[in-house]
Amino acid sequence: MAARLLAAAGVAMLACATVAVIGLVLAEPATAARERRAPKPAAAEPSGAEPQPGRPSAPAPAAPGPTAPGPAAPAGEQPPGAQSPAGPTTQPPGPAAAPTNAPANAPANAPANAPAAQPAAVKAKPAEPQRESLEADVSTRSVAVTSAFRGSEVVVFGTVLNTQQESAESGLYDVVLVVEGSPSPAVVRRKSNVGGIWLNTRSLKFDRVPSYHAIVATRPLDDIADEKTLAQHLVGFRHIRFEGALGASAGLTPAEREDFRTAIVRLKSKDRLYFTEDYGVTFIGKALFRSTVTLPAAVKVGPVAVHVLLFRDGELLSRMTSRVVLSRQGIEHYIYSAAFSHPLLYGLAAVAIAVSVGLAASLLVRRLG
After folding, report:
1. Is the pTM of this model over 0.85?
2. Contact 130, 263 (CB under 8 A)
3. How many helices (H) and strands (E) would you count in the chain?
4. Confidence band (pLDDT; 50, 70, 90) for 96?
5. Is 65 left (phi over 0), alpha (psi -120 to 50) or beta?
6. Structural domain tally of the chain?
7. Residue 142 to residue 291: CA distance in whole angstroms
8. 252 in a domain, yes or no?
């Protein structure tokens, strides 16, 4: 029995020894692999210092040459086990690649072949606002003048391009309409009291006088611009261009000529052919405006010019001109054309018609009587 126990104990000890040896054999490669993967800290030594006995020296840098392919290390990191040599090292010639994680401010002693910093983006200047301009038109281009003509109304409308005002009530802009009819000759006479009788003593003939002149504005002209600006652009009754006949004003002083001009304006204004309408132009938006101009029945047939002027702070910004044509139509047109085209035939026909109507009336009275 004791022999059997000793034999079993021996077998058990042999089995334990075998297991221990196998464990040591398997653990040795794993320990070696862990030691190879773990980086060994290297002590920094001054440049040119000799290795001290008993201390391992830093590994020498590998000579340039082909290396075995392997996985590339990420930017900014070193592969495991790689160590930086102490002291200054010599780099091979060639442009050095800039690291991706380089700081924004490069050091003062950066190498000469380092890439230049990108210049800062130039800030663009804000675009200057464009100058305001004007677009305008009339509601009709032609007005028919017939025997039933009692005058007409023309609507003038337009818009301010590149407007700067925020609403119609801002009052930033002023619009002036100058409506001129066809010019015609005119003679102005002065009457004087001679021996208790009023006689025509002086006269002045003008070759071209506007038959119709209307001024319609957003407010009074004196509030829109100064007298010099109005005179420069012929705005106002004082600045209407009257062309006198050649030699008609000889012997007249400037004051007398001005009196004759004033007389024309006064007589035309009495017949409502010359007039001014303040606040006759209204803005119905920050850019859109409109106005209504009345053409009286006594206006001369022919083209009517509509001048539209845009002012801001007393300065003219833009202007444009539209035209309305007054033309005779119907039987009046044919009679007028015949009178001027064939005056002799027109006179004979008028006399014949008058004689015929007189004889017919006389025969009718005799029969009734």
Report:
1. no
2. no
3. 6, 13
4. very low
5. left
6. 1
7. 18
8. yes
